């Protein structure tokens, strides 16, 4: 694969020369670099160096970006090349400086993404998150989709590789059994970014200039808000700004921890076992 990746990169470069490279990240079977060419153009190059369970997360990140950029060209970076194991995208200048109205801008632009609806949950291809495959076979039932294709999958991955404490596992299994009584049964299927945390939200001098690293699919829009809540990234003002466009369910804070649990489990598997304490905190509300 590496030979083919190099060939595709060289085809893109043509006669241009890379004059500088900056490593942006190296994780989950891929490396991400910022390159500057001799014509002063800047790009992000992301390369797969290890498939996780035969899933090319870089390729499907590129597919996600291409879909979103077509609909929101001022928010998602342009994709110049998508090939197996390789994407080349626009580099967005950013300094992560925010202003007093930055949260309002994020709320409005996120709500506008969520306004795009679908008749089913899932997507036309599986989407990535942290290098993992998020199965997206289309489904009518939100509870089944979230339980079987999100929450239970990461729960099983963790316990197959390095089991969590028995007490926590039993409580999570209890939640599985009563989840239909906790989360909304019939929300609308909304387009979501799919991996929206602080590191994937780019500001430059107070202006929201980009959203990166998506794992696009149709889901309950409040799942995305719960992720931002879990990271303590948003304030009460955010909910008000967002609700001006899409009203947040008045019972959101009664079930949001169930959505947060999915992202917490992902962080246990991908980053650190220290999140186990947080998982216990989340489930204790329901068990």
Tell me what you see in this structure.
It is a single chain. It is built from 9 helices and 12 strands. A hairpin with a 2-residue loop joins β10 (201-204) and β11 (207-211). With 287 residues, the chain is of the alpha+beta class. The longest helix has 20 residues, at 142-161. The radius of gyration is 19 Å and the shape is globular. The protein has a 5-stranded antiparallel beta sheet, with helices on both faces.
Fill in the keyword field for this structure.
287 residues, Aminoglycoside 3'-phosphotransferase, Chain: A, domain 2, 5-stranded antiparallel sheet, alpha+beta, 3-stranded antiparallel sheet, Phosphorylase Kinase, domain 1
| Topology as a string of helices (H) and strands (E) | HEEEHEEHEEEHHEEEEHHHH
Strand order of the largest sheet: 1-2-3-5-4
What class would the helix/strand composition place it in? alpha+beta
Rg over alpha carbons: 19 Å
CATH H-level superfamily of the largest domain: Aminoglycoside phosphotransferase (APH), C-terminal lobe
Oligomeric organization of the protein chains: single chain
Helix run count: 9
What is the typical, i.e. mean, pLDDT? 95
Looking at CATH, which topology of the largest domain would you report? Aminoglycoside 3'-phosphotransferase, Chain: A, domain 2
CATH class of the largest domain: Alpha Beta
Domain count: 2
Describe the protein's topology:
Blueprint: H1 2-13, E1 18-27, E2 30-37, E3 42-48, H2 57-71, E4 79-83, E5 86-90, H3 102-114, E6 117-118, E7 127-129, E8 132-134, H4 142-161, H5 166-178, E9 189-192, E10 201-204, E11 207-211, E12 217-219, H6 221-230, H7 236-243, H8 252-270, H9 276-283
Antiparallel strand pairs: 1-2, 2-3, 3-5, 4-5, 6-9, 7-8, 9-12, 10-11
């Amino acid at each position: 694969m590496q030979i083919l990746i190099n060939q595709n990169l060289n085809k893109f470069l043509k006669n241009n020369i890379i004059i500088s490279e900056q490593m942006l990240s190296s994780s989950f079977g891929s490396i991400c670099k910022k390159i500057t060419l001799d014509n002063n153009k800047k790009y992000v190059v992301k390369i797969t160096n290890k498939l996780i369970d035969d899933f090319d997360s870089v390729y499907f990140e590129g597919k996600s970006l291409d879909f979103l950029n077509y609909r929101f060209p001022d928010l998602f970076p342009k994709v110049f090349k998508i090939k197996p194991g390789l994407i080349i995208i626009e580099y967005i200048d950013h300094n992560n400086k925010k202003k007093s109205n930055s949260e309002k801008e994020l709320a409005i632009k996120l709500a506008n993404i969520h306004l795009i609806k679908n008749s089913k949950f899932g997507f036309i291809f599986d989407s990535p998150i942290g290098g993992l495959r998020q199965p997206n076979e289309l489904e009518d039932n939100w509870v089944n989709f979230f339980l079987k294709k999100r929450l239970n999958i990461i729960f099983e991955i963790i316990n197959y590789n390095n089991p969590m404490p028995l007490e926590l596992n039993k409580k999570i299994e209890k939640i599985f059994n009563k989840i239909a009584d906790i989360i909304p049964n019939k929300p609308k299927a909304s387009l979501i970014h799919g991996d929206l945390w602080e590191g994937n939200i780019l500001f430059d001098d107070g202006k929201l200039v980009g959203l990166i690293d998506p794992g696009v699919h149709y889901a309950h829009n409040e799942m995305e808000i719960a992720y931002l809540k879990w990271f303590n990234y948003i304030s009460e003002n955010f909910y008000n700004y967002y609700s001006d466009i899409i009203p947040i369910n008045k019972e959101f804070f009664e079930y949001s921890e169930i959505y947060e649990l999915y992202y917490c489990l992902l962080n246990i598997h991908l980053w650190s076992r220290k999140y186990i304490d947080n998982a216990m905190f989340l489930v204790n509300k329901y068990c």
